Amino acid sequence: MRKNKNRSSNKRRTYNKKFYKVFKKGNGFVRDKITPDPLDQLNECGVFGKITNKIGNEILKDPIHKVTRSIVGNMYDPKTEKPYKGSILYTITKVGVCLIISIFLFGLLNVVGNFR
To answer: How far apart are CA 27 and CA 30, in angstroms?
Structure first.
């Protein structure tokens, strides 16, 4: 029988599962409730802005997730590292991506607003 040369892949992660459940719920709350809405500035544009905000958030949901996931995937290996690290990295990265989109949109709306 051949032995597996890569023994590090056979190691199991050890972590406190009860604490991780609480940690995961806390991070989920931050991601869902505290993360800024990237298209929030559109709400100031009346009914059309509110409709655009709702549609835009649905359209941007998947790209934001994919960008966040790809950034975190470069820093975190789920097979060998504890899930706390992946969860907190995902939360921080998602908040950062949403803030960048918000700042970009705010600047874009100010530039467009100056041409009136």
So the answer is: 5
CA distances from 94 to 18, 74, 89 (A): 24, 14, 8
**Amino acid, single-letter form, for residue 44:** E
Three-state DSSP class for residue 80: coil
Q: Which residues contact 89 (CB under 8 A, 6 or more apart)?
A: 72, 75, 76
Q: Which helix (H) or strand (E) holds 91?
A: helix 83-114
pTM (two decimals): 0.74
Q: What is the pLDDT along the chain (116 residues), one digit of tens a residue?
A: 445 455 455 566 677 788 888 888 888 888 888 888 888 878 877 888 888 888 988 999 899 999 999 999 999 888 888 888 888 999 999 999 999 988 888 888 777 766 55
On whether the CB atoms of residues 38 and 107 are closer than 8 A, the answer is no
- How far, in Å, CA of 64 to CA of 68, rounded? 6
- What spatial distance separates the first Cα and last Cα of the chain, rounded to whole Å? 77
Six-digit token string for 53: 């905000």
